[in-house]
Write a structure and sequence with these properties.
alpha+beta; 32% helix
Length: 148
């Protein structure tokens, strides 16, 4: 009995009889109910299910929607379901696209601080606006003559 106690039980913090198993240099301890972290959950509306097409609702709850990209889900939650370009709420049938606030070709980074979620048509408008702004910043040949 002493050999079994010495081999499989040890003191672990405040627990005097913690069951553990040594295996290839590692030890595995049997957990107790009190070791499990409590997770609080938001109750899902009774009329909702994961495949009803309401991606905004599920993303706001931060559920694991298999049809939505993780990046889109995070940005949707950060922006509280609102497009940064037109300030309208996203609907379940809207096309949502990730956009760089400062374009990557201008030195923008691929981090969440530089990303925003836009409607598909808003993304096209913003890209057109950014292209026009970049073209206006480029000096024409006649302007180069004046600079020299």
């Amino acid at each position: 009995m002493k050999w079994i106690k010495d081999r499989y039980f040890r003191k672990d913090g405040t627990r005097n009889w913690a069951f553990f198993v040594p295996d290839k240099g590692k030890t595995y301890t049997l957990k107790q109910h009190s070791d499990t972290k409590i997770e609080r959950h938001v109750k899902v509306k009774g009329t909702k299910h994961i495949f009803d097409g309401d991606t905004v609702y599920w993303a706001s709850l931060c559920q694991k929607d298999p049809t939505m990209n993780i990046r889109v889900r995070k940005l949707l939650k950060l922006q509280k379901g609102i497009c940064n370009w037109c300030n309208h709420h996203f609907r379940c049938d809207d096309v949502m696209e990730v956009d760089h606030v400062k374009p990557r070709k201008e030195g923008g980074k691929d981090v969440y601080a530089n990303l925003q979620l836009l409607h598909g048509h808003c993304h096209e408008t913003k890209t057109h606006f950014d292209t026009r702004k970049a073209e206006a910043a480029i000096l024409k040949r006649s302007d180069w003559e004046m600079v020299r």
